[in-house]
Amino acid sequence: MPEHELWLTALFNDYLAGIALAILNAFHQTVANTTRPWQNWIVMELLVVALVMLLVAVLRSRLSVDNPGKLQHLFELTWEFIRNTAEEVGIHHSEKYAGYFGTVFIFILSMNLIGIIPTFESPTMTAAVPLGMALCTFAYYNFWGFREMGVGKYLAHFAGPVWWLAPLMIPIEIISHLARPLSLTFRLYGNMLAGEQVTGLFIRLTYLVMPVVFMGLHLFVAFLQAYIFTLLTMIYVSFATAHEEH
Fold this sequence. Notes:
about 250 residues, mainly alpha, 9 helices
């Protein structure tokens, strides 16, 4: 079944198809339909990026120590929540990682919520988007693991607590680490796709009271999945950077 093209995606394909094809050619990628290379999830993700950047620009222009506005209060509360959660999962000096955690939470939450707007859809309903975020997290926690622990000590974690268990533990640890991005991907993708389908179905069936109920459920799922993804990211960073004395 062909993908339903959103109106914004149609505009991109009508006027910016050349840009998409140039980018794809630069990476030696091809598409089946060269006249309509833009897909809904890419356009929606770009829209979210633009909106978040605009929001941050507005916030930065209004930052005030003496008279903070509601938007500044909201972001400060989010920052404190991220830092406190990171500390609770065992990350010491969480300020080093809070920027990434906050970016992940706000970006995923924004992508989840944009589907509530009529004629738009959540890009996290497409597996490529959660997979991209999961691979970023995979690279991020391994980078900090090597940086904080050193190459030898970090790799020693894969061997287990005693040397004679190494032949058994190393394959298990490698599989465990490789499964993490897959777990993050399918959890976010599956829940957002199911939530969107259920909400859309009941909105088509009922037009007054029930849509309000299921829109509330969609909001809950959007926040919950963004929180779970961020929390698991924190846990992986905690495991990767934990020193023995901790």
